[in-house]
Write a structure and sequence with these properties.
CATH superfamily: Jelly Rolls
Strand content: over 45%
Structural class: mainly beta
Order of helices and strands: EEEEEEEE
Distance between the termini: 24 Å
CATH topology: Jelly Rolls
Mean pLDDT: 92
Number of helices: 0
Number of domains: 1
Shape: globular
């Protein structure tokens, strides 16, 4: 698939409060994620790098010792193995998230 329209993607529940649609390549994963108000990821880490762009809404994100509130138009970068967490406030959040695929 060379082209797609974000508005036309069917989002599926990944876990309660998080719906997504992922496009899997050999060396890249791109996902559109919709996060409900109040959704909290208490923290996790993985070996793959990850970055993203907030399309709408606002979320608090921590990467390692850094913490910031991200709004539409803001981006983030998470190095491999870095502990990161986030919390959604105010209204649902839509994020374009890109990562390297899990190996193995």
């Amino acid at each position: 698939m060379a082209f797609l329209t974000i508005k036309g993607l069917e989002l599926r529940e990944f876990r309660p409060g998080l719906r997504s649609h992922a496009i899997l390549g050999n060396k890249l994963v791109m996902a559109i994620m919709e996060l409900e108000v109040g959704f909290v990821d208490p923290g996790h880490a993985h070996p793959n790098e990850q970055c993203g762009y907030v399309l709408q809404g606002e979320l608090e994100m921590a990467v390692g010792d850094e913490r910031q509130t991200l709004k539409a138009g803001d981006a983030y970068f998470i190095p491999g193995d870095a502990l990161h967490s986030f919390r959604v406030r105010g209204r649902p959040v839509l994020v374009l998230d890109v990562s390297t695929p899990r190996e193995g």
